[in-house]
Amino acid sequence: MELAQEGSVVVGTYIRQTGVLVIDNVTPLKMHGAVTAGVISLHVGKIYLNGTMIGEGQICKTLETGLYVVGFGEVPGFIAPLVKTMMIKNASSETITAVYVPKFQNISVGVAKQLMESDPAIQVIDVRGPDDYKAGHIEGAINIPIATLEQGMNELDIVKSVIIYCGSGTSSILGAGTLQEAGFMVYHMDGGIMDWVSSGYSLIKEG
Predict the structure, then answer these.
(1) Which residues are catalytic?
(2) What's the pLDDT tens digit per position in 117-174?
(3) Which of 93, 144, 164, 175 is the Cys-Cys partner for 152 at CB 3.0 to 4.6 Å?
(4) For residue 34, what pLDDT is reported?
(5) Residue 131 φ/ψ, nearest 5 degrees
(6) Closest CA relative to residue 141, chosen from 79, 76, 54, 205
(7) Domains in the chain, start-ordered, CATH in brackets?
(8) Nearest Cα to Cα of residue 45 among 58, 30, 34
(9) pLDDT in the model for residue 23
(10) What is the 3-state secondary structure (H, E, C) of the chain?
(11) Which residues fall within 8 angstroms of residue 37, CB to CB, at 6 or more apart?
């Protein structure tokens, strides 16, 4: 800031002191094809800055310097991250990675197969579209597309456990949260049909 006094008036150029804040909300999910489990960028949850909602999932925002309080909205079936405080300094770039931890169990395709074999009463839910389901699904799986899951869960027995899956695990993890919030005992099959097939397990095809 460069200011000069000219009589009773102060003139000059004011330069704003700003920094960048990046907020990324993610869920723990194995990256398909990765050697080890990691975090895939599945962005969920509303983001609040000093109590005001500024977006959802992922935000990149230029802010004036100062102290900010960052809060996170509820997502069904997940534990929301704790409120965080962040000091923005001039010309700085700060990042917050907020992880939504699932209340349900995230399991591999191998563990899922063992559960299906050991408990014939377990309910297996395929949340892909009808065409993908007919092209190849796990034996005994019920097709309830993710878009209709809230209504379709009425077909399920809440007393029995559920294994839920999709093509890669991206949409089914949100479906798992929906079922968990409704009171089901839920297992999410991480990696979905892609991992199931790559593990050498068979599918049932229709038509």
Answers:
(1) 166
(2) 999 999 999 999 999 999 999 999 999 999 999 999 999 999 999 999 999 888 899 9
(3) 144
(4) 47
(5) -65, -45
(6) 205
(7) 13-102 (2.60.40.10), 105-198 (3.40.250.10)
(8) 58
(9) 92
(10) CEEEEECCEEEEECCCCEEEEEEEEECCECCCCCCCCCECCCCCCEEEECCEEEEECEEEEEEECEEEEEEECCCCCEECCCCEEEEECCCCEEEEEEECEECCEEECHHHHHHHHHHCCCCEEEECCCHHHHHHCECCCCEECCHHHHHHHHHHCCCCCCEEEECCCCCCHHHHHHHHHHCCCCEEEECCHHHHHHHCCCCCECCC
(11) 28, 30, 31, 190
| CA 23, 27, 31, 37 torsion-angle sign | positive
User: Residue 89 corresponds to which amino acid?
Assistant: K
CB atoms within 10 A of CB 187: 22
Instruction: Count Cα atoms within 13 angstroms, Cβ side, for 19.
Output: 16
d(CA 165, CA 125): 6
Is residue 144 classed exposed, middle or buried when 0-12, 13-18 and 19+ CB atoms within 10 A define those classes? Answer: buried
Token digits of residue 190: 């991480």
**Residues 6 or more apart in contact with residue 151 via CB below 8 angstroms:** none
Give pTM, 2 decimals.
0.82
